[in-house]
Design goal:
Layout: H1 16-44, E1 65-69, E2 75-77, E3 80-82, H2 84-97, E4 102-107, H3 113-125, E5 130-133
Parallel strand pairs: 1-4, 4-5
Antiparallel strand pairs: 1-2, 2-3
Length: 149
């Protein structure tokens, strides 16, 4: 009877994934400890800070102002027809009341382009940055369109 002359491989344990997890845990605890130290330092200061209730802003931001430009060139703002120079003054007043005042320009599709551009320029002169132009999405291709596709 022959004796076994070959040796079986000894089972080995791959420690690489376990070492990776240990390093990740070390980093996690180091970062967590640092944040808790910052909170502890804040609590050590001998200052009694005032308390406030969780609330919202005192006033809601105003809605965007709407400027209508009609086909005949009339400009409508704040429920009245205005001239371009008066529009600039009214927009400046609105900007002083609320710094981030926004404006939406609703120009008639058949109005002169120059009137709409003049209104946009008036908004820029009043230092209004948030300017929007109202459009309608066409459902069918228009035969009047002169823009090549």
């Amino acid at each position: 009877m022959p004796l076994k002359t070959t040796y079986d491989e000894q089972p080995s344990l791959n420690l690489t994934p376990m070492i990776d997890i240990v390093f990740l845990l070390i980093i996690f605890f180091m970062v967590g400890t640092r944040f808790s130290e910052l909170n502890d330092l804040e609590k050590q200061l001998p200052i009694n800070v005032p308390e406030v209730s969780a609330g919202t802003a005192l006033t809601a931001p105003p809605r965007q102002k709407v400027i209508h430009v009609f086909q005949d060139g009339r400009i409508h703002f704040d429920d009245q027809d205005v001239q371009l120079k008066d529009l600039i003054a009214k927009l400046k007043d609105a900007k002083q009341a609320y710094r981030q005042q926004g404006v939406v320009i609703r120009g008639d599709a058949s109005s002169q382009h120059q009137t709409v551009v003049s209104v946009i320029n008036a908004c820029r002169q009043a230092d209004i940055i948030d300017i929007g132009v109202s459009v309608r999405i066409a459902h069918e291709p228009s035969s009047q369109s002169s823009i090549p596709r």
